[in-house]
Amino acid sequence: MTNPTARSAPKPGAGVLELLRLFKDDQAAADRYAADRLEQAKAIEPRLKAFEYLPQNTARRPGPLSGIPVAIKDIIATSDMPTTNGSPIYRDHIPTADAWVVERLRHLGATIFGKTVSTEFAWRHPGPTVNPWNSGHTPGGSSSGSAAAVAAGIVPLALGTQTLGSVIRPAAFNGVVGLKPSFGAIPRTGVHPLSPSLDHVGFFARRVNDVAFALSLLAASSESDPHGRLLPNFQIDTEGGVQPLKKPRLAIVRFEKWSKVEPEQQKVFEAAIARLSDAGAVLEELELGELDHANWNTINTILASEGALIFGDLVERYPDRTSARLKELVHTGKACSAYAFLAAKALQEKLRSRFTTDISGFDAVLTLPAFGEAPAGLSYTGDAEYCAPWTLLGVPAVTLPAGFGRNGLPLGAQIVAPYRQDLRLLRVAKWIESVLKFEPAIPTI
Question: What protein family is recorded (predicted)?
Fold first, then answer.
């Protein structure tokens, strides 16, 4: 006799929309799912080290995300769980209120599935999380635990943040889909700031449909976040998902740093270009000279200046509980003149406005998310130079898994669209995903 429980059990790595379709017809599966994920997390957490805190209660709540466990990066406030910000200063800190995005997820019926490891205050001092594909390599940062938890199949959706490359890069390193929406698309109230001019809330999942669905539910504005700007409204059908934009016109952007890209990453990128061209996409090389030359210094001037203001008093009060990397950020920021900061902000606005013109006639940009595989060791979370231009501009970006490197670690491709054209980006990404047909298995931890 067929076991009905086994028949309806979600397959490993099931996505959000796939789960919601299953749960619609099988309430028992919905009731079990988060509890099953918790058991799996407890089994592999001693090796993966993706979580600062696991949930005590996985009971299902009503709503459009009912039954879906969502992991929360540990710089995002939760009123019923510690929020450590990746720092010993906040080791036992429980906020008095949820972050806006957490409150919204609860309202939508999601199960808040613990807190994932972040680098210290989302800057460069890493936590203990390992890459699930190879524990001798970094998962990237700063959203280390969120990316690893999705890659390991513990949760189908996780929240991250990006100020330089902290969603796109770890998504690529772990072989999952990462979405950094347009700047201001999701209120950051209750998210510990690093650089308010650059901080984004984003997502990790296994499919484009799932990050698109999450954004459709969470995109909003709030008076408590002065940088917020409401996206054009869109809805995602849970049955069909995003409607792909077929045969798009894509601008290939390599930047001058292409010469430093690992050979295997170059090969994966060229193979993706060939497949997309064969499938009908129009692809043309595009140079973005001023953005290429100016973005790294500009974004770091803004980040260091604002970071010094946010963390200056903290590193003075707690010199024994703040890292050398955070102290260095504060030192660098204090050395920046007001003129340098204001000039960087002016250039940021100029480049953002120009970008729409620069890619006029194209549906999206196709570029890299990183120089190659996740670096060996846990002390360095990887180079963000391929992410920084798009974070500086505040434009939406998606990374998709696209292959493997010589060490058997995932490699990705990044797609970028103009500011507030998030739906167009997701439609292009859905088509590219369907053409590449690359979906990494869940690694054995």
Answer: Belongs to the amidase family.
CATH of domain 4-288+354-436: 3.90.1300.10
Q: Read out DSSP for 163-211?
A: SSSTTHHHHHHHTSEEEE--TTSS--TTBPPS-TTT-EEEEEESSHHHH
CA 344 to chain centre: 25
- The count of other CB atoms within 10 Å of the CB of residue 273 is 17
Enumerate the active-site residues: 73, 142, 166
The amino acid that residue 320 corresponds to is D
**Dist. CA 129–CA 429, nearest whole Å:** 28
Amino acid symbol at 202: G
Please state whether the predicted TM-score (pTM) of the whole model is above 0.90.
yes
| Cα–Cα dist 124/142, whole Å | 7
3-state secondary structure (DSSP) of residue 159? strand
pLDDT over 70 (residue 2) = no
Query: Distance (Å, rounded) from C-alpha 415 to C-alpha 428?
Result: 8
Per-residue pLDDT tens over the stretch 242-263: 999 999 999 999 999 999 999 9
Structure-derived torsion over alpha carbons of residues 403, 406, 407, 412, reported in degrees to the nearest 10: -30
